[in-house]
Specification:
Helix content is 35%, strand content 23%. The chain is α/β, with parallel strands linked by helices. The longest helix has 21 residues. InterPro entries: ArgE/DapE_CS, Bact_exopeptidase_dim_dom, Pept_M20_glutamate_carboxypep, Peptidase_M20, Peptidase_M20_dimer, Peptidase_M20A.
C-alpha cells in the first residue's frame, strides 16, 4: 500500500461521494425525526454492506440510533482513530422535498449539505479507502450520531465513551468558508424557562391578574444583560410564547435561552446568575422554573490537540491546501465532548461550506476530494 493508492482512489470517488451525498440530503432528518434520521443511517449502512465493512447500530428509543463502523486488523487491541459526525439537521419535515439537493456551478445546495452530511460522507469514504487498501497504522472507527443539533442528549454518553477509547478524534463538521479547520469552540447551554401567572379579565378585573408575559419581559432584559462580548459570553432568548387571549392577563409564558461562553470557568458564574433571575419575581405573584435542555462543552486546545492539528496541517499542504490554518468558532459541536475527556481532538475537517442552518446553505464541491485526502494522509502519518 502506498499513500498514492489511497489519495488516487479518493480522487476517483468524487462522483460516488456526490451521489451518496445527494441520496442523504434528499432524506429529511431533523433531530426529532427519528424515522428520517434512521433512514439516513440506513443509507450509510448500505454503503458499509456493499464494501464489506462491519458495522452495528446502538439503538435509542427516542432519537436516531448511533452507528458504529470499524476498519481494523483482526485481533487488534490498539486504540482507534475516531472519525466522528452527525447526520441530523435543523430542518423540519418536508424541507428536502421543497429544496432537494442541487448543483449550481461549483456549489451544491440542500438541507444539511454542509452541516454535516458531506462530512459524514467524507469520513465513510476515507474509512472505505483504508478498508480497501490497508495501510492505517491504527484501527479506524467511524461514529455517526443523530442529535447534535439539539445538544446531543442521547449521543453525548456514546461520544464520551468512544472518545475515551480513542487515540485521536477527527470531527468532520464543515470546513470554514475561509478553508480553515476548527481548533477551538465555545461551549453552549440550551435552556427552557416557564413562568406561571394568574389569568383575569384585562378590562373588568385587571387588578386580580398577574401577567406571566410581563414577568417574561423583565427576565429577558436581565438575561440579555449578562452578555459580555469582550469575554465571548452571549445570551440570547431566541424563542418566546405565552398568554391566553389579548383581553386576559397572561397566566403562563415561556422562553428558550442560548448561552455561549469561551472560558470553562465562566460557566458556573453565568448559570448562577441565570438561576437567580429565574428565581426572582419581578412581577409579584409570578413563579418560574428553569430546565437545561442540552449542553455542549468548549473545545480548548491542548498540547496534544495542537500536535494533532500540526500533523493534519502538514498533510493538507501536501494535497494543495497550503494556506489552511486553525481558527476559533463561536458555534458548538460534539468535538467539545471528546476534547473534555482528554482525547486529542480537531474539528471542522469536512468539505468547505457555509451559511449552515439557512436555506442558502452551500457546499464547495471542489473541496470534497482534497479534504478527504488530507484526512487520509493525517491518519497514515499518525
Amino acid at each position: 500500500m502506498s499513500e498514492t493508492q489511497i489519495t488516487d482512489w479518493l480522487a476517483s470517488q468524487r462522483q460516488a461521494m456526490i451521489n451518496l451525498l445527494r441520496d442523504v440530503v434528499n432524506i429529511d432528518s431533523g433531530s426529532y425525526d427519528k424515522e428520517g434520521v434512521d433512514a439516513v443511517g440506513a443509507r450509510f449502512e448500505r454503503h458499509f454492506t456493499e464494501h464489506g465493512i462491519p458495522f452495528r447500530r446502538e439503538s435509542n428509543a427516542t432519537f436516531g440510533d448511533a452507528i458504529h463502523a470499524d476498519v481494523a486488523k483482526p485481533g487488534s487491541n490498539e486504540k482507534p482513530v475516531l472519525l466522528m459526525g452527525h447526520r441530523d439537521t435543523v430542518f423540519g419535515k418536508g424541507e428536502a422535498g421543497r429544496r432537494p439537493f442541487t448543483i449550481e456551478g461549483k456549489r451544491a445546495y440542500g438541507p444539511g449539505v454542509a452541516d454535516m452530511k458531506s462530512g459524514v460522507v467524507m469520513n465513510i469514504f476515507v474509512a472505505t479507502a483504508f478498508h480497501k487498501f490497508g495501510g492505517s497504522p491504527h484501527p479506524i472507527k467511524v461514529l455517526i450520531t443523530s442529535d447534535e443539533e439539539i445538544g446531543s442528549p442521547s449521543s453525548r454518553p456514546v461520544i464520551e465513551r468512544e472518545g475515551r477509547a480513542a487515540r485521536a478524534v477527527f470531527n468532520s463538521e464543515p470546513g470554514r468558508p475561509t478553508g480553515n479547520i476548527v481548533t477551538g469552540r465555545k461551549g453552549g447551554i440550551f435552556m427552557h424557562f416557564a413562568i406561571t401567572g394568574k389569568a383575569a379579565h384585562s378590562g373588568a378585573n385587571f387588578a386580580a391578574g398577574v401577567s406571566a408575559i410581563g414577568e417574561l419581559a423583565h427576565k429577558i432584559v436581565q438575561i440579555h444583560a449578562l452578555t459580555d462580548l469582550d469575554k465571548g459570553i452571549t445570551l440570547n432568548v431566541g424563542l418566546v410564547s405565552g398568554g391566553q387571549s389579548v383581553n386576559t392577563t397572561a397566566p403562563s409564558a415561556e422562553g428558550q435561552i442560548d448561552l455561549r461562553y469561551v472560558d470553562p470557568a465562566d460557566r458556573a458564574r453565568i448559570m448562577a446568575a441565570i438561576e437567580k433571575i429565574i428565581a426572582t419575581s419581578y412581577v409579584p405573584g409570578t413563579s418560574a422554573t428553569l430546565t437545561v435542555k442540552g449542553e455542549f462543552v468548549p473545545v480548548v486546545q491542548s498540547a496534544e490537540s495542537k500536535a494533532l492539528f500540526e500533523g493534519y496541517q502538514a498533510a493538507a499542504k501536501q494535497v494543495g491546501l497550503a494556506t489552511l490554518q486553525g481558527e476559533f468558532s463561536g458555534g458548538c459541536a460534539d468535538s467539545g465532548f471528546t476534547a473534555a475527556v482528554g482525547t486529542p481532538t480537531i474539528c471542522g475537517l469536512g468539505p468547505v461550506g457555509g451559511l449552515a442552518h439557512t436555506p442558502e446553505e452551500y457546499l464547495e464541491l471542489d473541496s470534497i476530494v482534497p479534504r478527504a485526502q488530507a484526512l487520509a494522509l493525517a491518519i497514515l502519518r499518525g
